[in-house]
Design a protein that fits this description.
The protein has four helices and seven strands; from the N terminus they run E-E-H-E-E-E-E-E-H-H-H. By secondary structure, it is of the alpha+beta class. The protein folds into two domains: 1-86, no CATH class; 91-183, no CATH class. Strand 4 (71-75) and strand 5 (78-84) form a beta hairpin.
């Protein structure tokens, strides 16, 4: 800051105490060298914002090695041994794994549908309200979760069966009623 009348220069500085939380940071890279560059930039950001990061909890998901031992990677001023992860990780709300095991995502979809049905079945809503909620809430959520997995027609029908059954119940149709009127 400058005082224009006396030509004096002063430096003002203020520190503000802030508490922040950052759960899952995912860094995607095509090579170890590129990952090191990304971690260097991330560490500069953490230092700039004074963020306390538990770097020892870092995991590495890779398809280029079968090593069981941790891989030492420079993360800021420290070299930390990062444990390889062969299990599933959550990325933008979707579980992925290095082995392309779709059964984990399908299990999550079944649980999501089951949760939706358990929530909706006790609500006093009309068949039209049910249809609106399913089409504008449930189905977009499911479509997002299955973006990275292929589903057969029979799997789609299986997932849709319990939703259709609840819809028939809301319409006061028997469960064994034909599905044809509900798809026109």
């Amino acid at each position: 800051m400058s005082n224009v009348f006396t030509a004096e220069q002063q430096r003002l500085q203020e520190q503000i105490a802030v508490l922040e939380f950052m759960n899952d940071a995912n860094w995607i890279s095509s090579s170890l060298e590129n990952l090191k560059d990304i971690l260097e930039v991330a560490d500069d950001f953490y230092n700039l914002t004074r963020a306390a990061i538990n770097k020892e909890k870092s995991k590495l998901l890779t398809n280029t090695t079968n090593a069981n031992a941790p891989i030492p990677i420079r993360f800021g001023q420290n070299i930390i041994p990062i444990q390889l992860s062969m299990g599933a990780v959550r990325f933008l709300g979707v579980k992925i794994n290095i082995n392309i095991n779709h059964s984990l995502v399908k299990k999550e979809i079944r649980a999501h549908i089951r949760s939706f049905i358990n929530f909706i079945k006790t609500k006093l809503i009309t068949d039209r309200q049910f249809c609106y909620v399913a089409n504008h809430v449930l189905f977009p959520q499911l479509l997002y979760k299955i973006k990275n997995i292929p589903l057969s027609e029979s799997e789609c029908k299986t997932f849709n069966q319990s939703i259709r059954s609840l819809y028939k119940h809301k319409c006061h149709f028997p469960k064994m009623a034909s599905n044809a009127p509900f798809h026109t």
